[in-house]
Amino acid sequence: MEFRAVLLGIILASSIAGALAGDPSPVQDFCVADVNSSLFVNGLACKNPKLATAMDFFFSGLDKAGDTGNRVGSNVTLVNAARIPGLNTLGISLARIDYAAGGLNPPHTHPRATEILTVVEGSLLVGFVTSNPENRLFLKSLNRGDVFVFPVGLVHFQFNYGKTPVVAIAALSSQNPGVITVANAVFGSKPGIDDGVLAKAFQVDQGVIEDLKAQFK
């Protein structure tokens, strides 16, 4: 009887966890974020819906190219609940991604969102890698109008292999998808991960790790 009760509890907990996966579902028409609130909640606090206006659901500027004059040659303009307060609790966000010729959106993950990307102008090489132990690479060349999906949490990238700029639009299944750029996290963490740990993990000399860390200071 005790075992059955424990088993029932595990099944119930698993069901609840599955139901709560992803952003919580709204329980009202909208919950416009109160950007001035000091209340700390999972998401953003709501303001009085009677004070909401059309501007709370509006953003202007995705027609403007982002600055790609950086080391990787790409720029992400993210439109999330911090920029459109009306997105709060709706479980979605949007991004414009600009790539210079040879530009890269380096390997990264979104811990809280699946991403669906479409190429607006130009061509991209995109890919994602599955989890251990297979670490299988899914790779595809995309042209204007093509669409590709990056499953939630998996490492992925986009590379402009051409000689002209590329523009893409991505939708993400969270109001705050988060981003972890692999190289920045590993070699640019604060405080830094011990050189010996990284040298063993990557099977290289510590001098290589020191050089890599210097690039991410």
UniProtKB/TrEMBL annotation:
Subcellular location(s) of the protein: Secreted, Extracellular space, Apoplast
Gene Ontology CC: one annotated term: apoplast
SMART domains listed in its UniProt record: Cupin_1 (SM00835)
Pfam short name (any one): Cupin_1
KW Secreted (keyword) present: yes
Stretch forming the signal peptide: 1-21
Binding site for oxalate: 105, 110, 115
CDD domains: cupin_OxOx
Residues bound to Mn(2+): 108, 110, 115, 156
Disulfide bridge map: 31-46
InterPro entries membership: Cupin_1 (IPR006045), Germin (IPR001929), Germin_Mn-BS (IPR019780)
GO molecular function: manganese ion binding
Residues in Cupin type-1 domain copies: 60-210
Keyword tags: Apoplast, Disulfide bond, Manganese, Metal-binding, Secreted, Signal
The keyword Metal-binding is assigned to this record: yes
Family to which this protein belongs: Belongs to the germin family.
Protein name: Cupin type-1 domain-containing protein
